[in-house]
Specification:
Blueprint lengths: L2 H10 L2 H18 L5 H21 L3
Protein name: Antitoxin
InterPro entries: Antitoxin_Rv0909/MT0933
């Protein structure tokens, strides 16, 4: 098992933590930009969470 497989296993066991991390990063980016790009940041965060779910679910197939 390679390092990426181990990382994927670790992340798949902690999907909620991955989503929380994405939300925290989005909140920080929104704060740093003074809310000017809130809509775009939210869209990007949702897309990142969906992609992370897709990647982590592939391992279970």
């Amino acid at each position: 098992m390679g390092i990426f497989d181990k990382a994927k296993d670790l992340l798949s066991d902690n999907k909620d933590k991955v989503a929380d991390g994405i939300d925290k990063a989005a909140d920080m980016a929104d704060q740093k930009t003074g809310g000017e790009y809130s809509e775009k940041i939210d869209q990007g965060a949702e897309a990142a969470k969906e992609k992370a779910d897709d990647l982590l679910d592939q391992d279970g197939q």
